[in-house]
Amino acid sequence: MKITPDEIYSETNRLAFLATAAIERYMEQGGLKRSDIADRLGIPRSRVTKVLDGETNMTLRTFASFGLACGIQWHFGGISIENTCMSLPWGGFESPVHMTVNEAVTAVSSPCEQKEDPAYKDPDCTSAELTSCDPVGPL
C-alpha cells in the first residue's frame, strides 16, 4: 500500500495534536501549570505556551522533555510506537501504572471510557496486565 505525501502530512498533524493533548492531560492529572513545566525545564513560559498552542513544532525531544517534566518515565519496548510503554504517575498510586501509547491516547481522547486497542498485540503490555509491562530499557 502506497501512502501519499498528503496522507503523511495529515497523519503527522494528527499525531502532533495527540502528543500535545497527551502532555496537557498529564499536566492536568498532576495539577501542573504551564509555568510549572517552564520552571522544571528552565525555559520561558512563553516557549511552553507556543509549543502547547501549536505555534511551534513539537519535536520528539520536546515531547520527551515535556513528558519528563510532567513526571512520566519513558521506556522503549519495541521498534514501533505501538510497542512503547510509559509509566504514568497518576495521582494516588504508590507505584506507576504502565500504559502503552495507544492506551494513553485512548485515555486522553476518552478519559472516562478507556478501550483496548484491538490492533495492539504486545503480550507484555496488555490492558489486562498493565502492571506486568516489562520495558526493554529507557528511550
TrEMBL record:
GO terms for molecular function: DNA binding. CDD domains: HTH_XRE. SUPFAM superfamilies: lambda repressor-like DNA-binding domains. This is Helix-turn-helix protein. The lineage of its organism: Bacteria, Pseudomonadati, Planctomycetota, Planctomycetia, Planctomycetia incertae sedis.
